Amino acid sequence: MRESFRRLLAEKCAETDIRRVMASPGGHDADLWQAMANLGIVSLLVPEEFDGIGAGAVEMEEIMEEAGAALLAGPLLPSAFIAASLVSLSDDADAKARLLPAIASGQTIATVAFTGDTGTWSLTDISVTARPQGNVWVLEGEASFLLSANLADVLLVFARTPDGVGCFEVDPSKVQISPLVSWDPSLRMSKIALSETQAVRIAGVDSITFEQLIEIAVVALAGEQAGACRRIFDITVEYLKTRVQFGRPIGGFQAIKHMAADLLIEVESATSAARSAALALATDAPDKDVLISLAAFACADAFSQVAAASIQMHGGIAFTWEHPAHLYLRRARADAQLFGQSDAYRERFVAAMEKAA
Amino acid sequence: MRESFRRLLAEKCAETDIRRVMASPGGHDADLWQAMANLGIVSLLVPEEFDGIGAGAVEMEEIMEEAGAALLAGPLLPSAFIAASLVSLSDDADAKARLLPAIASGQTIATVAFTGDTGTWSLTDISVTARPQGNVWVLEGEASFLLSANLADVLLVFARTPDGVGCFEVDPSKVQISPLVSWDPSLRMSKIALSETQAVRIAGVDSITFEQLIEIAVVALAGEQAGACRRIFDITVEYLKTRVQFGRPIGGFQAIKHMAADLLIEVESATSAARSAALALATDAPDKDVLISLAAFACADAFSQVAAASIQMHGGIAFTWEHPAHLYLRRARADAQLFGQSDAYRERFVAAMEKAA
Amino acid sequence: MMNDAKTLGDEVRVWLAEHWDAESRRAKSGGSLAEWMDQVVAAGWAVPSWPAEWWGRGLDKKSVSLIVNEFRKVGAPGAGQDRTNITANSVMQFGNDALKQKIIPEFLTGRASQCLLYSEPGAGSDLAAVRTRADLQGDHYLVTGQKVWTSGAQNADYGLLIARTDWDVPKHEGLSFFIIEMRQPGIEVRPINQITGDSHFNEVFLDGAVVPVENRVGDEGQGWKVMQTALAVERLVMGDGAGERRQGSSKNNVVSLIDIARETGKINDPVARQEIAQAMAYRKLNALNMLRAKQEMAQGSASPIMSLGKLAMSRILHEDARIMTKLMGAASMLDGPEHSLAADVNYRTANAYMTSIGGGTDQIQRNIIGERVLGLPRETEADRNVPFRESRAVTG
Amino acid sequence: MMNDAKTLGDEVRVWLAEHWDAESRRAKSGGSLAEWMDQVVAAGWAVPSWPAEWWGRGLDKKSVSLIVNEFRKVGAPGAGQDRTNITANSVMQFGNDALKQKIIPEFLTGRASQCLLYSEPGAGSDLAAVRTRADLQGDHYLVTGQKVWTSGAQNADYGLLIARTDWDVPKHEGLSFFIIEMRQPGIEVRPINQITGDSHFNEVFLDGAVVPVENRVGDEGQGWKVMQTALAVERLVMGDGAGERRQGSSKNNVVSLIDIARETGKINDPVARQEIAQAMAYRKLNALNMLRAKQEMAQGSASPIMSLGKLAMSRILHEDARIMTKLMGAASMLDGPEHSLAADVNYRTANAYMTSIGGGTDQIQRNIIGERVLGLPRETEADRNVPFRESRAVTG
Predict the structure, then answer these.
(1) pLDDT per position as a tens digit, A198-217
(2) Would you call B311 and D393 a contact, using CB atoms and an 8 Å cutoff?
(3) Residue A95: which domain range?
(4) 3-state secondary structure of C175
(5) A:C CB pairs within 8 Å
(6) Total domain count for chain A?
(7) CATH of domain D114-224
(8) B261 and B339: one domain?
(9) Mapped to the 3 state alphabet, what secondary structure does D16-69 carry?
(10) What band does D4 get if pLDDT is binned at 50, 70 and 90?
(11) Where, residue-wise, is CATH 2.40.110.10 in chain C?
(12) Do A251 and D374 touch (CB under 8 A)?
């Protein structure tokens, strides 16, 4: 499947396609999305009983490496991976039957609201509140940094309830959705405001589910970062072999050659970190916490560093909008913020190592 | 005077001299000390009325640049600069008349006990206590990281008294002095233990005096670091011009050339930081706090970085005991700890900038 | 000499008092800026060190400083262009008399403006690898090629052009320097879209553009030398302000990491404080270095520290942007006028490359510092002694 | 093939059961280690891939792995030296039959030990700039010169020596490789005092030392190639453990920044925790990289990641030491047995250079990664085509 996905992206998600989709209002390529659904990418994490492939974190991470390399935009991560995982993790047979086949087919796009204005994706950051009112629940408050909410048919909103954190299915038409302009033109983010909004509670989602969902999101993002990091590095190394200055390719100059050697360590480390975190998540390994928090900051930092250095190594040409290097820098800078920041994950990593020590 | 001092050091404090003094039990070259006294170096900070030169922080910093470059060992910093400043800062006419001319002549070596086992050189770190007993005071407790206490004729010991922090003149023969072996073989450090030790209080020394003394010590040390940093850098650059590998001097390889260029920024910054801190201290400038805390960490970090890199740039030859590079590394690592650590000074620097902002 | 200077000072002051209204900062005679400049040029204040027959007064450097200082005091423009005017200086030093007469007054009075046609797509760090050709055809050259990173090309009257007139000698030896009229059919200017969203620079396409032989500055083959002289004047003008001035193009020029930390609630975070301290230290240390450099230069000794400024500024700008991003957290993903702090940080992130790449990359700067300041051996240039036609810049 | 392997496995197991007592980890026949090795060599397990007439069994690589694996299971030494024994392999591949017969059994049985006489004061990173000369005199060479960074030279029976036999060809072409007896009057060994306080290495002075012609490994002029082969075997032996093994010479091999932070009371300091996290991450990431490299290699594909290990380990060791120093604060100034934690950190600070300089500096490693892994153009060597006599290594 990885191989087919790579070919599909090479064909339909080349640089010109990315730029076209970036410039479009929705930031989404419906044809490509359909092709991905046909390949089984969209249903990858959905259990087989709900028309999905039933694969796990390892396969997801591989797919995200390809998606990251191609700078794929759109709802793959928020809908097919995060929202689908959330519903799968719930105990809600009804929600599963209703939502999962639709998400798996790509017909329904869902997204999760799981952070507030501070953007730390932590339980304490949830600022929507929910109170029961007869048969339904009523939601109040704001959530931010939602991915692809502009396309969403379903919003899954985390909220504080009288009995702890819960999650609610919300109809986007009943919510005020404000777009958040991003420096990464491939991202479509939104902020939502709920006021007396009626919603259906998804059974069996609590604070533990929230943490599990963050783990999945982090591993998926780590895959994207590892893949993107490697691609912009490869692009740069190719350029170093062809760009001639002072009578020889600039890759022959030690200053540049040594930068590349150091960056290769970061690139390989990101790949190792993302893949081992995925494996640890899939197998519920004892060192899961260590490896997932490691992947979170190592992949974010590697991608940021490699993308930044790639512009420097290209020189003036990469200072132009038409060169792709800055698109990777923009994605790297956004990815470094999603689902929690490096410093926070370094802290978690030490805490996990302390437990292990 | 700087010029004469440089010539003196070139003559009597060459690498062989340093190694001889390092290997000696006292870590002190009495002949050189006498020559320095003759030049007026030892009496530099002592007011003219007490047979000194009456110079200030700017001149002290210049002298310390030369001392640092030559890796001078011995009591210049603790006796002639720190202890002499302490007595001068006091209100104690008797102590001044008794101690300052003797220190200025080099006959008396004094040193200050102003930190405890935690080695942070902060007021909270003082763990000696003093209580009045008739006409004298009695001291109890420990102090650590004293410089040149092995040579000292007088100990000046900070202690907590019923009326706040004070300072006491202590006879070394009444104190248990234990040598602390240092990784920098040119350093002679000691720990002292006082038990029912009688002492004379020096009038007019309080917690403000303590902070003033730290400022003087930091500026002197910054000068040493700036000077030492520049010297090991110069030694390294010279080597880069003569060491041939692959048919040309290694300084011609970009990897090495670019390291040198980056290090030059650190070397020049250390010099600028040390000198501007000295000037600010001498003129009691409004941005004194900013510049002194900046010098504290910038000079420590620059010297550590340059000394460490110099070994790498020399290659195997600098991995041998006979090469001087590691002597600079040892000094750099010790200096980075004296009078407080870089992180603490970065914190003070931000606090001072906050006030200014 | 001191007496001479005093007399000169008096003369300048008297002249200014007669011609310039310090209050309104305008010429007493009224009129345009160019008309004021006509007066300055005529009086010999524009280029005082040049000979009297060429708009000057044959004075020494110290006297020029004195004149510039008097003009500065009353806010009058135009004096001392023998130190700052790139075009006028190049033409004066290397041009023929006809060109001097034609070009210099236009530039000294500010009636004409120029752009620099030096960089090419294939000649970035390797400035001498020029592939734009100037072929002699009777009394003029036909110029064909492409230049990049030209600022002000749309509005410029003239371009300072370096082009290749001989392909059979090594790359530095076959270049010639021209002053070409920009407004002609053979020249097309296209703005470059920068990653910052700005378009400060242009590509300039030359396709059979015409430049008369008398507009060649210096002999054929002397182009590299003429350009070096022009670059030296430019560096002098930029001085240590290079980095800061570039950074001045940021939308918000006041940097305070402390303010941002306060605004983002991170001011008491000990980890953030360490990083803020280090970034502010880099900036402060560079300022202290530049101050020391100026003091050394004021005492007459050339300061090697000055040349560190651009490289140091590059680290400062990148580090500032990095730490601002960290302080902002998730909000740094945002952009646009509604999120002006984020937009500023984003802009800084991209614009820092203007310093680390533009005007000589950090890597080139390190070469220069290593070689010119520290005296380390020069890089061997593979194509130094090869006819340009056979070098890899041409053969690929 | 699977069947063959099974049969071979059975054969090894049966042989081991007969000859080796897994409980006591000794030969059933008793005797010295060398006597055990005699049995291993005689049975063909020592070098299974070599031909039968040269102590081997003519087996393929997979079979060797199988044999080594069976030996490992019962803790028996000596198998599979065709992958690990530097001297035996070099002699087998390049030596004459007389030398093979004389040297190889001594090394396969461990009766003889060798040291490496490669590095010289003038040939550090530039390994080929060898100035030690070997001059042919009838049936032997006279060797004069100086070698450095030789470990085990005091106890070695033989030295693997690279020396120059021709000064009139470029530096790589005039070298020859020898196996020289160390215990002879012309060789003096002096220990090197390291900055760590250790003396793991020696200088070796050769002054008319004698080596017979038949001890030349390979033809005259083939020395560079022979040494490269020997180095390749060495790298294979070191594998990814290179850094860790070197670091194993630290006095306290267990690194736990968390333990040190606990001991120094810094475990709850948020600034320290960030630095600890980053340092531990570097170590963990390198371990994950090496694991992945091994998996890739187990699947038969050559892994470029493996070559990153030494450079990565260099950063890890320097960073560990730096952060330990910070955690310790003022106590890091101390040393000696009374301050064992400080002494350990000091040792690590100095010993980290063993990895960042020894066995190829970080700079050389980056060249290798850039050129061999990433395929970037090679450094131009100024003396590559110059007769060594005329190169700067000789002329200065």
Answers:
(1) 999 999 999 999 999 999 99
(2) no
(3) 2-109
(4) strand
(5) 128
(6) 3
(7) 2.40.110.10
(8) yes
(9) HHHHEECCCCEECCCCCHHHHHHHHHHHCCCCCCCCHHHCCCCCCHHHHHHHHH
(10) low
(11) 114-224
(12) yes
